[in-house]
Design a protein that fits this description.
- The chain has 5 helices and 10 strands; from the N terminus they run βαβββαβββαααβββ.
- It is an alpha+beta fold.
- Strands 1, 2, 3, 4, 5 and 8 form a 6-stranded antiparallel sheet that branches. A two-stranded antiparallel ribbon has the order 6-7.
- Strand 9 and strand 10 form a beta hairpin.
- Helix 4 crosses helix 5.
Length: 177
C-alpha cells in the first residue's frame, strides 16, 4: 500500500486537555500533510473508561497515499508534537489522540493495525461523527453503512453533544447542530 494510489482515510481525533488548542493544531497539521479535510461536527463527551475531564471528539476524512504504517507514524508524531504522553495508563487524560478508523475498504490487520478500528462499533463519540460525514459508506467488515450502524446504536450508554467549534474561520459545529 505504497506509491501513488490514494485511499480515503477516516481518523478519529480526541482531546481532553486544552481541547480547543490541541484539536486546532491537529487539524492544521493534517491539512498541511493531506490538503482538504472532510470534518464532522465536534462533540463533547464524558471520559470513557476512566475519570477525567470531558473530551472533544471529531472525525476527519482525507485522501492519503501513505502506507498504513507511515500514516500511523505521522499521526503519532502529530500527537507527540502536541504534548502526548505515552508513559501513563492506557485509559487516561490526553492532549491528543488520533486513531486510524478506516483505510479505504480494507478489513483485517495491516502493518500491525486492525482495520476498520473496533471503536467504530463500540463508541458513540466515534460512530456518530463518522456517520455524519460518511453515512452512506459501508463498514468493510459488517456490510452496513455507518448511517445504519448509528441508527441501530444504543444511545443511552454514552452521552455526547455538539459544541461550538471554528477552524480557519469556518464554523465546524455549533451547540445547536
Amino acid at each position: 500500500m505504497c506509491g501513488t494510489s490514494r485511499h480515503r482515510v477516516y481518523v478519529s481525533i480526541g482531546s481532553n486537555i486544552d481541547q480547543q488548542r490541541n484539536i486546532l493544531a491537529c487539524l492544521d497539521a493534517l491539512a498541511e500533510h493531506f490538503g482538504e479535510l472532510q470534518l464532522s461536527s465536534v462533540y463533547e463527551s464524558e471520559a470513557v473508561g476512566f475519570g477525567g475531564d470531558n473530551f472533544f471528539n471529531l472525525v476527519a476524512g482525507f485522501d492519503c497515499a501513505l502506507s498504513v504504517a507511515k500514516l500511523s507514524t505521522l499521526l503519532h508524531q502529530i500527537e507527540n508534537d502536541n504534548g502526548r504522553r505515552r508513559d501513563g495508563p492506557r485509559f487516561s487524560s490526553r492532549t491528543l489522540d488520533i486513531d486510524i478508523l478506516t483505510y479505504g475498504d480494507i478489513a483485517g490487520e495491516v502493518d500491525g493495525i486492525s482495520l476498520p478500528r473496533d471503536e467504530i462499533l463500540e463508541n458513540a463519540f466515534v460512530l456518530w461523527p463518522l456517520a455524519e460525514i460518511a453515512g452512506a459508506e459501508l463498514h468493510p467488515a459488517v456490510g452496513k453503512t455507518y448511517g445504519q450502524l448509528w441508527g441501530e446504536y444504543d444511545r443511552t450508554e454514552q452521552k455526547l453533544w455538539p459544541v461550538d467549534f471554528v477552524w480557519r474561520g469556518k464554523v465546524i459545529s455549533t451547540q445547536g447542530s
